Amino acid sequence: MPTYSEAWLEAVASCPPEERTYDTVQLDHPSFGEPAYIVANVADNMQFGIEAGAPVNAGQMVTFIACPLKAPWPEQREGQPPVAKVEIDNVARELVPKIRAALGYRAYIIVTHRQYLESDRTEPAYGPVSFVLSNVMLTGTKLIGEVRVRNLQNKRFPKLDKNYSYTNFPSLLP
After folding, report:
1. What is the pLDDT of residue 1?
2. What pLDDT does residue 11 have?
3. Which member of 6, 34, 40, 123 lies 3.0 to 4.6 Å from 69 by CB, making a disulfide possible if both were Cys?
4. Of residues 97, 23, 37, 43, the one with CA closest to residue 65
């Protein structure tokens, strides 16, 4: 479940010009030695902190590689989970060997999205939100794939820690 900071809520609500947000993506797979970290649409690599409690590099500052990234809002279709098409450009050196190795391995590539604020790059202001990457294609130096929430139909809603029972909610039908 994604978390967000008060600073992120304020930045989104008021849009101050000096408060820039950075969208980042972490790609992870059992065949990768280390996850691949990408920051979208900036000129140079940047350092960002990973949240405490993360499975890899928790509480550490990590270098994110600058790559053009395109990820529009997911499609909404009846009876289908939301799916978004993702394009990461200029991945030749860093990601191509990892992605080729992952395609021959039977496991999901996990994509984790985090958003950081210019004023505090030590931890995410929003996120992490995890997806699975499927239908992966490498064309030249571009990675194209689809991301979706894994096992969405089995997620608890509205709260992850709430069970609905007849004792708590007597109007539920047996």
Report:
1. 52
2. 72
3. 40
4. 37
Beta-bridged to residue 75, according to DSSP, are 83
The angle subtended at Cα 127 by Cα 101 and Cα 136, nearest 5°, is: 25
Contact 28, 37 (CB under 8 A): no
Residue 109: the pLDDT is 87
pLDDT at 143: 85
The residues of the chain scoring below 50 in pLDDT are none
pLDDT score, position 50:
94
CA–CA distances in Å: residue 111 to residues 7, 24, 101: 24, 10, 16
* Nearest-angstrom CA–CA distance, 126 and 23: 9
Task: State the pLDDT at residue 122.
Answer: 93
Q: Could you please report the per-residue DSSP string of the chain?
A: --EE-HHHHHHHHH--TT--EEEEEEEE-TT-SS-EEEEES-SS-EEEEPPTT-SSSTT-EEEEEEE-EE-PPPB--TTS--EEEEEE-S-TTTTHHHHHHHHTSSSPEEEEEEEEETTB-SS-SEEEEEEEEEEEEEETTEEEEEEE-TTGGGS-SS-TT----TTT-TTS--
